[in-house]
Write a structure and sequence with these properties.
The protein is an alpha/beta fold. The protein contains ten helices and twelve strands. A ten-stranded mixed sheet has the order 3-2-1-4-5-12-11-6-7-10, sandwiched between helices.
Length: 302
């Protein structure tokens, strides 16, 4: 599936935090890794990887040496251009199967995902992208634990969101991991205005509770329908439906259940015309410290 993995680096420790995850992907998928550095000051739209201020070829070869020790085929590439456009053009020309990058590099941890190179690639590329929100430079990363042995596939009932299933399933098979099919349904709570100036008062009605039960039942049946053929292929699958706000529920479940990889489409019911910023995927990308495999689904498949 991932014959060639493009790893985007800018020379910073933050960007390098994607390397352990890209390495594991390459080992399990027998992939070639291409280490890419783009020289050139980005414009306002594509800022993210800073201007050249070090010997990029020497730096990339040093990174490559540690990967080659693991038996991975590695090529090093330095090109010039606007960062997001250059990465996308290179990926298209070289038939890259997966782009791997940190959501922040030289810009630091304070920037929002929107407007970054990662966001540009999510909006413009149809390729799967493996991202990580890096920890503070110098922080210890526990990469000795099994990676990707518990995988969360985030779904919303739409065909667009289901397009992540191909990748989530293959990850589970390659890493012999457990796959959790996950969906949230709205909580049966509304808020009345209450007394002027006071906080809204949560209310529940019998009708709301009944509708919530129906939604849970429909979701469970939907997830089980997806799970059945996967179990027949030997994939360990669990179907989980919980009430809540999608982004918050995904993060809470992932943190509470030792999830190692989140897989998600950038759009589901909202359709592709909706900007990434403000979506569930963007919330997860901004707030989670886990590696996330994200795709922009093809609209014509819905």
């Amino acid at each position: 599936m991932f014959e060639k993995i493009l790893v985007c680096l800018d020379g910073s420790e933050l960007a390098e935090q994607i390397l352990p995850y890209a390495k594991q992907q390459a080992l399990r998928f027998s992939s070639e890794i291409q280490l890419l550095h783009v020289i050139g000051k980005p414009d306002r739209e594509h800022e993210g990887i800073g201007p050249e201020d070090f010997e990029a070829p020497l730096y990339l070869e040093k990174v490559a040496a540690s990967l080659r020790e693991k038996g991975i085929d590695v090529n090093c590439v330095t090109i010039e251009g606007v960062v997001g456009e250059a990465i996308l053009s290179y990926a298209d020309q070289r038939e890259i199967g997966l782009i791997a990058m940190a959501t922040h590099g030289r810009s630091g941890l304070g920037r929002a995902v929107f407007g970054s190179v990662a966001d540009y690639l999510l909006r413009e590329s149809g390729l799967p992208i493996l991202t990580i929100k890096p920890q503070q430079a110098g922080a210890h990363l526990n990469t000795q634990e099994p990676l990707f042995n518990k995988i969360l596939a985030c779904l919303d009932g739409s065909k667009l969101a289901e397009q992540i299933m191909l990748y989530a399933t293959e990850e589970a098979l390659r890493f012999q991991g457990q796959l959790i099919l996950f969906q949230t349904v709205p909580e049966p709570v509304a808020f009345s205005p209450g007394i002027p100036g006071a906080a809204p008062v949560p209310i529940e009605t019998d009708t709301m509770l009944e509708e919530a039960k129906k939604a849970l039942k429909v979701s469970r049946e939907y997830l089980e329908k997806l799970a059945t053929p996967l179990r027949q292929r030997g994939v360990g699958v669990e179907a989980v439906t919980i009430p809540g706000i999608p982004g918050e529920a995904i993060l809470h479940y992932a943190d509470s259940n030792n999830i190692k990889l989140i897989t998600i489409a950038t759009h589901g019911r909202g359709g592709l015309r909706r900007a990434v910023f403000g979506s569930v995927a963007d919330y997860v990308l901004r707030e989670s410290g886990l590696p996330i495999l994200v795709i922009r689904p093809r609209e014509d498949k819905d």
